[in-house]
Write a structure and sequence with these properties.
- The complex is a heterodimer of chains A (427) and B (368).
- Chain A is globular.
- In chain A, helix 9 packs across helix 10 (231-245).
- By secondary structure, chain A is α/β, with parallel strands linked by helices.
- Chain A has helices spanning 2-23, 38-54, 70-79, 93-99, 112-116, 120-125, 148-153, 168-181, 198-211, 231-245, 274-281, 315-325, 328-338, 345-350, 361-368, 381-396, 401-418, and strands at 27-35, 58-66, 86-90, 127-128, 131-132, 134-135, 138-139, 142-147, 188-189, 266-270, 285-288, 304-308, 341-342.
- The longest helix of chain A is centred in the N-terminal third of the chain and has 22 residues, at 2-23.
- Chain A has 2 domains: 26-140 and 302-368, Periplasmic binding protein-like II (D-Maltodextrin-Binding Protein, domain 2, 3-Layer(aba) Sandwich), CATH 3.40.190.10; 142-298 and 376-418, Periplasmic binding protein-like II (D-Maltodextrin-Binding Protein, domain 2, 3-Layer(aba) Sandwich).
- In chain A, strand 1 (27-35), helix 2 (38-54) and strand 2 (58-66) form a beta-alpha-beta unit.
- Chain B is mainly alpha-helical and 368 residues long.
- Chain B has helices at residues 2-43, 69-75, 105-111, 138-169, 176-188, 191-201, 208-214, 227-256, 259-267, 272-283, 285-300, 304-309, 323-332, 338-367; strands at residues 77-82, 119-126, 129-135.
- Chain B has a 3-stranded antiparallel beta sheet with strand order 1-3-2, sandwiched between helices.
- Chain B starts with a helix and ends with a helix.
- Classes of the chains: A alpha/beta (427), B mainly alpha (368).
Chain lengths: 427, 368
């Protein structure tokens, strides 16, 4: 009888002692990460291990989620109160996450020195409702890859920087000359094989902006009427439709290799093709900055970036981890793995590809020279991108431009109205 | 007395057994059909989003009751008479072909507050006048039109094609088992996979179908890329995928018909066509009814092939959108309005229910 009491006492004591010792252990920082390419995953694992080894206050624990259903998983976690401390998301998803109350502003954490070294495009992308909500380790670059031999044979001038970009007339003339030289080829590879999705908005909304139109009124974010279906937008999308009508591009490329096979002389795509294209084309590969389509030169930007959630119990710890990821050394681990544009100017300057004179310096010029336009900074973005991608599909296969843009505007405005204009969340 | 008691207790046992056997099906129906339907009915009167906003205190913003708003948005139609544009001289304007010039539908609809949110469904030319049919949700009406087109073509064509195939593989020839397997193979293949493969077959530039047709100097066709041919393309592949299933059922039906009837009719001098018309077809009556009904129900549920082959869009220009795809798009993609999607579910259920009841009535009348 007495023995059992002693045992019971010991057991109870053990129950109390365990939590006591546990509290002395480092606090857990949970992380959600979209599982993209293998190299990117490995890089993140390395960075988290480095973080855990570098200090003893926090321990980062990552959960990888499939990219296809990533946003659904985050939504489900938010509704059940299970958001991690730190999570990543594709650029423009930020505004809907912030509006839904998942994220906290990080202005108070980020030092001026740090922000001064971050690409302005990344800060633009991370800003919603006047607050900084996210920072990314890398940005993306969109321009036109060219097959130098084919361009020279057709007598096309190759621009070297932002100062001598093609004008619309020059671009049209270049396409016509290339088509004449290769009448059986689709000489402009628009990566239509990526299919209807974010690529269509990322890749082709710069055409709207280049002509002087846009996806939505960026002053108010209250309507797309007159902006996405105005005369300028119709002109921009008619020009886009002509690319297919004139036989420059096809809506149904057989595969992803039109450019490396030498069928296409120009490939309108992002930085992510660099390694493959450089391997196949070598010195024959040139990077051409986005042309000025009338109003300005415009290009896409943005990529996956990181934010701290409102359900995180250790937001200071989450910031330490994010700050650690933005450390030049750790950033380089990631950008070496995925080839994306590092988001810190000091890292860019030290990278031979991105530094002045490097193969990919055009991307940096575009990102720093405000050629790059962030995608609309509104919680309505998921609907905007869906409707615009649909419009791109329809227009490329010959639908009436004005009617198609009108119906996209109707759907976007209906979504904004259904959400009472997405009023900014109270802080 | 004892016997009566025994009988009634046996009956009671029988009844208990019957209820017990009903139980699993009843539970499943209640849990997976009735309760979800009740939820959909309840949600259809709200503005429930798929993902509610989190309020600063961490709770979810509750959905609001919106009455019949979802239903009126889904079903609202307006017919307007269009008047031709008049020039400065008071004469109606004419274009280069001498046709009257009408204002754009959107200009009219946006110019009047009462038509807010409505867009053109179609224009009707009748007796020299032109009418504009506008809808709050044109995609819904197009989806209904598309699915009825699909059903009206697929049910008769697939049923007759299945019967033809069944008669073919019912021949007593060598390798008939081989052909049965070949025709049945698409049925056991996942529709998603079949859709992806056909998506490549339909590729206008490199696809097998256009390459094959080019041998005969036909085409090339923009199969899935053109509004006029997209639905036809979906119909063709759906028939190819589904026909094997009906074929197997017809095959079973054919083998039920006694050989003696054929022998007797041959003795009476019936030719093969007469044998088919007066022996085979009447013998397959019940099979045909079953095949027709099951094909109709399957056809109304058209979703997977359209979802995969048009990237979830039902395009081009809504030419392949179906009610189920529209429901999924409204509830789970884009605006993610679960309340509105629920209203679609309720209305579509009522439509399909009405059609099943009519079909049942017609077929039982025939039997009687």
């Amino acid at each position: 009888m007495k023995l059992s009491r002693v045992l019971l006492g010991l057991l109870l004591a053990a129950l109390f002692i365990v939590p006591l010792t546990a509290s002395a252990q480092p606090a857990e920082i949970s992380v959600f990460f979209h599982s993209g390419r293998g190299a990117e995953r490995d890089a993140l694992d390395t960075i988290l291990t480095n973080f855990n080894d570098s200090q003893s206050d926090y321990v980062a624990v990552a959960t990888e989620l499939p990219e296809g259903s990533y946003t659904d998983a985050v939504n489900a976690a938010a509704l059940s109160g299970d958001l991690p401390c730190l999570l990543d998301f594709d650029g423009p998803t930020l505004y809907s996450f912030a509006w839904r109350g998942y994220l906290i502003p990080i202005d108070s954490y980020a030092s001026e020195d740090l922000l001064a070294d971050i690409l302005p495009s990344i800060i633009d992308q991370g800003t919603y409702n006047g607050h900084l909500y996210s920072l990314g380790v890398f940005d993306s670059g969109l321009a036109i890859w060219g097959n130098k031999a084919m361009l020279e044979a057709a007598g096309v001038r190759i621009p070297t920087g932002l100062d001598d970009v093609w004008t619309l007339d020059e671009f049209d003339a270049a396409l016509a000359a290339l088509k004449e030289a290769h009448p059986d080829n689709f000489i402009l590879d628009l990566k239509m094989n990526y299919g209807e999705g974010e690529w269509f908005t990322y890749g082709f909304s710069p055409i709207l902006q280049g002509f002087g139109a846009d996806l939505i009124d960026r002053e108010t974010y209250a309507t797309a009427e007159g902006v996405l279906n105005g005369e300028v937008a119709v002109a921009a999308m008619t020009w886009f439709q002509d690319l297919f009508d004139k036989g420059y591009a096809t809506t149904t490329p057989p595969d992803d290799n039109e450019f490396i096979n030498g069928n296409a002389a120009l490939s309108w795509v992002g930085h992510w093709e660099y390694n493959r294209y450089a391997t196949e084309l070598g010195d024959n590969l040139v990077l051409i900055p986005m042309p000025n389509l009338g109003a300005r030169a415009a290009t896409g930007m943005g990529s996956w970036n990181w934010g701290i959630t409102s359900q995180c119990e250790n937001q200071d710890g989450a910031w330490s981890l994010l700050e650690f990821m933005l450390d030049p050394e750790q950033m380089t681990i990631m950008t070496d793995a995925n080839g994306a544009v590092p988001s810190r100017i000091s890292v860019l300057d030290a990278d031979p590809n991105y530094a002045t004179g490097g193969d990919l310096n055009i991307f940096v010029q575009q990102l720093q020279g405000s050629v790059a336009v962030p995608r609309p900074q509104t919680p309505a973005y998921p609907v905007i991108t869906r409707e615009f991608a649909t419009a791109i599909s329809e227009i490329s296969t010959g639908a009436d431009v004005q009617d198609t843009l009108d119906s996209a505007v109707d759907a976007i405005d209906a979504d904004i109205a259904a959400n009472d204009g997405y009023p900014a969340p109270s802080m | 007395m004892a016997i009566t008691l025994g009988t009634s207790s046996a009956r009671r046992n029988e009844r208990t057994a019957a209820y017990l056997m009903l139980l699993p099906a009843a539970v499943l129906l209640i849990v997976f059909s009735l309760i979800p339907f009740y939820s959909a009915l309840r949600l259809s009167f709200t503005n429930q989003p798929l993902v509610p906003q989190l309020l600063p205190d961490g709770t979810q913003r509750p959905a609001e009751y919106v009455g019949l708003d979802n239903y009126s948005q889904l079903l609202r139609l307006e017919l307007l008479t269009l008047t031709p544009e008049v020039g400065d001289d008071g004469q109606p304007l004419r274009d280069d072909n001498g046709d009257l010039v009408f204002p754009r539908a959107r200009t009219i609809l946006r110019g009047d507050e009462q038509y807010a949110g409505m867009s053109e469904l179609t224009q009707i030319h009748l007796l020299g006048s032109r009418y504009l049919l506008a809808a709050s949700d044109p995609a819904w009406w197009r989806s209904l039109f598309n699915v009825f087109t699909f059903v009206l073509i697929v049910v008769p064509v697939q049923t007759s094609f299945a019967l033809a195939l069944a008669m073919l593989v019912n021949q007593k020839i060598r390798a008939s088992n081989f052909f049965r397997t070949v025709y049945f193979a698409p049925v056991v293949t996942s529709m998603a996979i079949v859709s992806v493969i056909w998506f490549f077959l339909y590729n206008p530039d490199q696809g097998f179908i256009n390459n094959f047709l080019s041998v005969f100097n036909v085409g090339p066709f923009q199969w899935l890329e053109h509004p006029a041919s997209a639905m036809i393309s979906i119909i063709l592949m759906s028939i190819w995928q589904g026909v094997g299933f009906q074929m197997i059922i017809f095959l079973a039906g054919l083998q039920e018909i006694p050989e003696a009837l054929y022998e007797a009719s041959a003795l009476d001098g019936a030719n093969p066509w007469q044998q088919f018309r007066f022996v085979t077809l009447p013998g397959l009556r019940n099979t045909t009814i079953f095949v027709a009904i099951s094909t109709t129900i399957l056809a109304f549920k058209l979703f997977v092939q359209v979802d995969v082959m048009t990237f979830g869009r039902g395009g081009p220009e809504d030419s392949t959108i179906t009610p189920i795809l529209h429901l999924v798009n409204e509830g789970f993609r884009g605006s993610q309005r679960v309340g509105y999607a629920s209203a679609i579910a309720v209305v579509f259920l009522l439509i399909v229910l009405a059609i099943s009841l009519i079909q049942r009535r017609v077929l039982t009348e025939k039997e009687a």
